[in-house]
Design goal:
single chain, four-stranded antiparallel β-sheet, mainly beta, globular, disordered C terminus
Length: 324
């Protein structure tokens, strides 16, 4: 197995390599890591000796040297429709105040392999297969799984016993193999015992990854609305209650006296309160100078706060555990 290391620094310039304990990180595949006043957190999985998935694992540390491993249990309501599979994965982590946070998403996907095996076993899979759905006037959904020319498999949800409400393709502009069901959010005071929090205002709105920025003004979560693809952000003081927030970009980073971020065009925005934002420039030399000055001031303000970077020696493979 490839070994893993943590690199710890008190100033962000000089780094000390610490080999992570093999008994905690055997076969580990790390997906995301973050740090803050409470310590450090990483999420991922592990490949067991029999090459099976080791589940959703969490590692936490108060200092970057000593680590505790725990497992995150995801409770999901399974779909009643055949060929519709429910899965959930953690994507993002954050440390805020005296709490660790993990965010993710529950999704459903069509088990196309099982559909083909049961209904057209002689189907010739091409190198790149595709799936299309079309909502009919009757409310049923036509499903096309594309193969070699003249070998497309066409059926309907009703013929497969699939409830469109459990796989709501009509709510999306484009048809995906997966659809978001609800947001997932957990908090923990110690990084071992995890409590799932309700985030009803974010349910059905976050697609793909669910990044969180931890700042002195609280937490900012980012995603996009599933139907339109429009970006959306939310704010929470401690990870329990969330409200929609009008944010010009991401990530959101602390600086001396406020926050800064960049929009998709490279424009830099600053905020003194985390609510009102002012654009200060674009992707120019002056912006780069301003960014460096902000980073310098931020480093001076937090120079005693330890930083952590996780790295792997050798091969590192990481991917969500449900089909894309």
């Amino acid at each position: 197995r490839d070994s893993l290391s943590a690199f710890v620094s008190v100033d962000g310039e000089d780094w000390t390599e610490v080999e992570l304990p093999p008994e905690q990180f055997a076969g580990a595949i790390l997906l995301e890591a973050a740090g803050g006043p409470t310590g450090f957190i990483a999420i991922g999985t592990a490949i067991e000796e029999n090459e099976t998935d080791g589940g959703h694992l969490v590692w936490t540390s108060p200092n970057g040297f000593d680590w505790t491993r725990s497992e995150l249990e995801i409770r999901l309501t399974e779909a009643t429709s055949p060929y519709v599979v429910t899965a959930g994965d953690p994507y993002s982590v954050a440390v805020s105040g005296d709490s660790f946070l993990i965010a993710g998403q529950a999704r459903r996907y069509l088990d196309t392999m099982a559909i083909i095996a049961d209904h057209q076993p002689d189907f010739e899979w091409p190198e790149f297969a595709y799936m299309e759905t079309e909502t009919l006037d009757t409310g049923d959904v036509r499903l096309t799984i594309g193969g070699d020319q003249g070998n497309d498999f066409v059926t309907t949800f009703s013929s497969l016993g699939i409830d469109p409400e459990e796989f709501p393709v009509a709510d999306m502009e484009s048809d995906w193999f997966t659809v978001p069901i609800r947001s997932l959010l957990w908090t923990s005071p110690d990084g071992i015992e995890w409590i799932e929090q309700s985030a009803p205002n974010m349910a059905q709105h976050v697609g793909g990854s669910f990044p969180i920025d931890a700042t002195e003004f609280g937490l900012y979560a980012h995603g996009w609305e599933a139907a339109s693809g429009a970006s959306q952000s939310w704010h929470s003081a401690a990870g329990f209650d969330w409200v929609e927030a009008d944010i010009p970009g991401r990530p959101i980073v602390d600086w001396s006296g406020g926050l800064y971020t960049f929009d998709s065009g490279g424009g830099m925005w600053i905020s003194a309160d985390g609510i009102s934002w002012e654009e200060t420039g674009g992707p120019t030399a002056s912006t780069a100078d301003a960014t460096g000055d902000v980073a310098k001031r931020s480093g001076q303000k937090h120079r005693n706060r330890k930083r952590l970077r996780l790295a792997a020696r050798g091969r590192q493979e990481a991917s969500p555990q449900y089909p894309a």
